[in-house]
């Protein structure tokens, strides 16, 4: 992957951020339980059909509401939304923790291929050493340091 040099927080804040299971709720954009998933998906910008197909999002899911989808189905929408055409950088914070291993594998395989194809910067945050071993080129462990008053 290509290294990215950030010119400050403004540039960073303007990039899309992919977070965990509550990405849709946290974004505050069209995530009401009465909004169809197709509308929610379009709120993330222009998402190519290739991404929708690659993530296994089925056409009939677009007319459902978020509460009518499983966790894995909903997470696929979160990822598709985060992969709009303008996306240059992603922070994937525990995006697959709640999913079964098959769904995790499908999502990560697609996401890693897409990141490589489009040269998107990717930071993966996870407690799973096994996952990090599979997806990360480098690891930076975060540890809590004790402070004394």
Number of E strands: 2
What fraction strand?
Answer: 5-15%
Structural class: mainly alpha
Alpha plus pi helix count: 7
Strand order of the largest sheet: 1-2
Q: Element order, helices and strands?
A: HHHHHEHEH
Largest sheet: number of strands, sense, barrel closure? 2 strands, parallel
- Shape verdict: globular
Low-confidence stretches: 1-33
Summarize the structure.
The chain has helices spanning 9-14, 23-27, 37-42, 49-54, 71-82, 101-118, 129-135, and strands at residues 89-93, 121-125.
Structure characterization notes:
With 149 residues, this protein is mainly α. Helix content is 40%, strand content 7%. The chain contains seven helices and two strands; from the N terminus they run H-H-H-H-H-E-H-E-H. A two-stranded parallel ribbon has the order 1-2. Strand 1 (89-93), helix 6 (101-118) and strand 2 form a beta-alpha-beta unit. It is globular, with a radius of gyration of 16 Å. The model is unreliable at 1-33 (pLDDT under 50).
List keywords for this structure.
mainly alpha, 7% strand, 149 residues, 7 helices, single chain
Record the SSE blueprint.
Layout: H1 9-14, H2 23-27, H3 37-42, H4 49-54, H5 71-82, E1 89-93, H6 101-118, E2 121-125, H7 129-135
Parallel strand pairs: 1-2
């Amino acid at each position: 992957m290509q290294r990215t040099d950030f010119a400050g927080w403004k540039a960073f804040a303007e990039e899309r951020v992919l977070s965990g299971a509550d990405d849709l709720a946290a974004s505050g954009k069209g995530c009401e339980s009465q909004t169809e998933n197709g509308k929610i998906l379009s709120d993330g910008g222009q998402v190519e059909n290739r991404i929708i197909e690659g993530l296994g999002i089925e056409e009939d899911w677009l007319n459902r509401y978020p509460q009518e989808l499983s966790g894995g189905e909903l997470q696929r929408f979160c990822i598709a939304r985060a992969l709009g055409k303008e996306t240059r950088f992603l922070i994937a914070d525990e995006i697959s923790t709640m999913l079964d291993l098959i769904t995790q594998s499908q999502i990560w395989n697609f996401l890693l291929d897409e990141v490589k194809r489009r040269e998107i910067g990717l930071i993966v945050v996870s407690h799973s050493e096994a996952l990090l071993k599979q997806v990360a080129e480098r690891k930076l462990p975060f540890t809590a340091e004790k402070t004394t008053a």
